[in-house]
Design brief:
Elements: E1 4-9, H1 25-40, H2 45-52, E2 54-65, E3 74-84, E4 88-97, E5 104-116, H3 127-134, E6 140-142
Parallel strand pairs: 1-6
Antiparallel strand pairs: 1-3, 2-5, 3-4, 4-5
Length: 143
């Protein structure tokens, strides 16, 4: 599958007192990129919850911080599905500088579970949604 790319600018609020992106904010950038990817496929998470009774929740994350992002950097956040299960998706995600040398800053693997909204128990991803999610990822969007 091809990857989806989303750009985000580092704001002052994203950084610590030294002007470096606070480590937990990389997770926020990755979450936003996955949400924007879903949106480009026509899958809105609030609609999924209301109409299908399903939510996607993070099951596990593995991250490697390579180099710090800093205030006012433009970042490229990539999303690519690396594995699909009956009730889960595993994403390879990376955050790189979008300008200049485009160096890798953070690399991660994120496993998402499809859960029933009421019971929070795993539930199979509906086939129509699975088809949409596992089609080739194309495009990019910026902020």
């Amino acid at each position: 599958m091809r990857e989806f790319n989303w750009q985000v600018r580092v704001y002052y609020e994203d950084t610590d007192s030294g002007g470096v992106v606070y480590y937990a904010n990389y997770l926020r950038f990755m979450e936003r990129a996955r949400t924007e990817w879903l949106r480009t496929l026509g899958v809105e998470q609030d609609t999924l919850s209301q109409q299908e009774g399903l939510i996607f929740a993070v099951r596990s994350i593995q991250l490697e911080y390579v180099k710090p992002a800093k205030f006012n950097d433009l970042l490229d956040v990539s999303v690519a599905i690396s594995k699909t299960g009956k009730a889960s998706l595993t994403f390879d995600q990376a955050i790189s500088q979008a300008e200049g040398q485009k160096q890798l800053l953070c690399d991660g693997k994120v496993k998402i579970a499809c859960l029933n909204c009421e019971t929070f128990r795993p539930q199979a991803i509906p086939e129509n949604i699975r088809r949409e999610l596992t089609q080739e990822i194309t495009g990019s969007i910026g902020r």
